[in-house]
Amino acid sequence: MTQKANLFKGQQKKKSIPPNRHGKVPQIRKGKRFVKPSKITKDMETDREISKFINQCNEVKAATAAKKEGGHLSLVKAPAEPASSEKK
Asked: Region Disordered: start and end of each range (predicted)?
């Protein structure tokens, strides 16, 4: 049986932050890392394309709103031209 009341089965002692660390950086917990799925389905591909489109639309809206207010925000990447227009 444990002598400390807060260390029963399955519980761990919480680390307290020292009052003075003298310039030492706090330890950052890395956690679970993102692992790429081995099989990429069509649904995953369409979700990725949709999110790219939404992000691009949001960037364009933010840039136009900034220009209206007198700012100089512009997009770095120009939208890619479709390959069908180049063949004409």
From this structure: 1-30, 65-88
